[in-house]
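Show me a record, fold above all:
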Amino acid sequence: MSDRLNERTSEKQTIVRNLKLAPEKARGSSRRRGLRSKMAIIVIVLIVMLMGADALWNYNLQRTQAENEAREKAEVLASEMRAMWDFIDMNQDVINRDENGNFRTKTLVCVVAAKSVSTLFTSNTDYIIRFTGETPRQKANAPDAFEQEAFDAFRANPGLASYSGVRTDEETGQRVFRYSEPLYVTESCLECHGEPVGKIDQYGYPKEGMSVGDIGGAMSITEPMSIYEEGIATSVTQQALMVLIMVAVAGLGIFLAANRLLLRPIENLSQAAHDIESGNFDYKLDTSPRVGGEDELSEFTRDFDSMARHLERLCTDLNSEVKKQTEETRVLNDMLMYQQRELKKAVDELHKESAYKSEFFAIVSHELRTPLTSILAFARLLLENPNFDEKTHESIADIEANGTLLLNLVNNILTISKAEANRNELLVEPVDFVDLLGFIKKTLDPIAANKDIALSAKADANVPISMADWEKLRRVIENLADNAIKYTHRGGRVDVRATFLAPLDPQAHDGALRAEGEAWLAGGDGDDAIARPGSKAESCSVRHDWEVPLPCSSAPCGTICVTVADDGMGIDESDISDIFELYKQAGQSPNRRYRGTGLGLAVVKELTELHGGVATVESQRKVGSTFCVRIPYVPLPDEEDFDEDSAC
């Protein structure tokens, strides 16, 4: 129910948030340029770009045409001047010799005639026609920069008929068209310009040593480009105006069409959105089919109208839904308050029960442990009296054994209660495992004697005195030994042994410990019942390690291991996994022979882990069990500096 409420609340919050954001979006759009302004700017930019492109293209075209026209005129002038040059050249003998063939110059040679004609031709125009050479006889006929370029081009390409291009006149700064053609040496030219070099010719100039076919000079024609540029400017202006008119008309048509087909429907949608924002769903939209068929905008208009109608229905139901959800929320809050009150009552009851429990344990501690201790003390005194007969001694031993069991049970209950309340603490003091095992053996001897069980307790000579809680270790070992006695048949054996494992050698110690346990068991009821290395019985052995890591793998100073081994009934593999759990016993059955509370091994695990240790078990059914308690060795404060053999 709460999930459905959260889902609906989230949906409503989303709708309200979108409605709140709509005015902000509308105000933001009002500050932005309208579509008409944007389209007008786009059309103007396109017109300017098109006009510029057309003007540039047209200007380049006109300039190319002007250059071609200037070249054609120059070629015509050059042809006329060359015809006059050839005429004078062919009539040199008639002009400059008498009837007998004697030379009598009239100074009418080719170049003089050509210069005279060109001067007359260009006197009333801006055209310039001149004849030049690389070795002129007069400085006025020396080539300028363009004419020198022409000579270089003619030499580089002997088949080149002419050399032309547009240049800027250095004197006037105007653009001019330059044209040049080569003048080649003929037979008639050798009389004045041939061999030998340096000989004075008829006109008093040294000969140049030219040969037939050499470039003797060049004809240069200069035409002004101003007459062409005026026409280019006029033509470009006219075409630009024409293009402007055409593009403007086209742009206006596009703008009007976009305004009619695109902008006006968008304005209608914007107005409808503003109406919906103010809660007015009586907007007007033209959703009828358009002339010319459907398009994306008409489809969008229909989708917008459908969405708006859906939103209208949703908003209509929103108030009633909010009221409904508010009522459900109020009911849920009332239920929550009721549950809180009930929870408070339950907590108060738990506090009362906890107080009763604490009071009960206090009574158990003071009212049971004190008299039990007294009973055990008197029973032990009576056992030491030799005046009683055997039957009386047996009765007193039963009293002492059962009293010990009852005292252990009371102690286990108190330990588990403190563990549940996290109140178990260690009272650390030096612990001598020789004395500790001796005390436990003395306590359990009567119980073992009642079942004819051989109980032994031994601490290896290398087991050091360690800082630990003496009483809690006593209860751990005593619980294990008491269980071993309980589950061992008459005539069996229970061995309690303490060993010391140096750091960084856990596997070697486990192997030695297992080998010694097997050797001890081999001295019992027979070899056939004992598991030996590689035997089938050993393959059924089960070892259980708890989640707490083995101290021997992490204790920096070593580990003290206490093992309790018996040759009793053993534990099934199915029971061994939870043998240390609270209220768990091996073979829990209404008809089981050995009964108990299931607290002893849980206390062993609790108190061992309180020391930072771990409890493990190895067992074989009908062979026996070996319980091992490992705790980290903690040196005495005054031994840390000098006892390096037993410490770290």
